[in-house]
Amino acid sequence: MTGTTMANPFDLTGKLAVVTGARRGIGKAMAEALAAAGADILGVSATLESQGSAVAAAVEAHGRTFTARRVDFADRAAVRALGAELAALERPVDILVNNAGTIERAPAAEHPDELWDRVVEVDLNAPFVLTREVAKAMIAGGRKGKVIFTASLLSFQGGITVPGYAAAKSGIAGLTKALANEWAAHGIGVNAIAPGYIATDNTQALREDPERHRAIVERIPAGRWGRPEDIAGATVFLASAASDYVSGVVLPVDGGWLGR
After folding, report:
1. pLDDT tens-place string over residues 123-138
2. 258 in a domain, yes or no?
3. Separation between Cα atoms, residue 115 and residue 206, nearest integer Å
4. Bridge partner list, 198
5. Active-site residue, 245 included
6. Interatomic CA distance for residues 260 and 253, integer angstroms
7. Does 257 fall in a domain?
8. Which domain holds residue 231?
C-alpha cells in the first residue's frame, strides 16, 4: 500500500472505472460516487453520449474525466467487441462495475421465450462475457483490479412475474462466487451489491401499484424505498483498497428487507 492508500483506503485517485448502465438510476449514482472518490469514468449504455448527459456532468463536477460507449447488451457480438476494446486500452481498466440490466414482467405460465432470452442475455450472459475479457487482460498484465456486479434481492428470493430476472440475478450471485474463487489469488476482487427496492425506472410499475407499494414499504425496516445514492457507499467500498480482503460477497443494500 502507498502512504496515500493507508491514509485513506477509499481513495480512487488515478483509477479508471468502467460502469455499465451508467446513464441513469443506480448506474449514474455509482459512477458519480466513484468519481467523487477520485476515479475517472468510462460509462456504457445503449443510449449515452460523452457530452451533455447528466452522468457526464455529475462526473465532471468532481473534476474527473468522463467518456462514453454505446452498446446494446442484448447484442453478444457488441459486448465481445467492447470487452476486446477495454482489454486493449492504453490506460488499463482498474474497476469494472457490471450494472446494466433489464427486467420483463409477465406471469411465469405466460412468459414468452423472447422475454426470458432477452433478460438472461442482458443480465447474466453479457456481464460474464465482458468481465471475462477485462479480467483476462488484468491477469495477463499482472494487475490487480476490482469487479462489482449488481445483483438483486431476487438473488436470494424468487419474486413474482419476473422468472427470467430472478434466474439471471440468482446466476449473478453464483457467478460472483465462482469468479472470486478463481481470481482472488491474482489480486482481483470480485463482489456484488444486491440493491433492495430502489426508486428507479425498473421499479416504477411497483411504485404505481398502491397495494404492492404499501406492502413493500411495510416490509422494509427503514420504512422507505431506497434511493440510487444509497448504493454509493457500498460501491466505493468494494471498488477500493478498503475491501481488499473481501471476496465473493453479495452485499445487500436493502434497508433491512432480508433481515425482516
Report:
1. 999 999 999 999 999 9
2. no
3. 19
4. 226
5. no
6. 13
7. no
8. 3-252
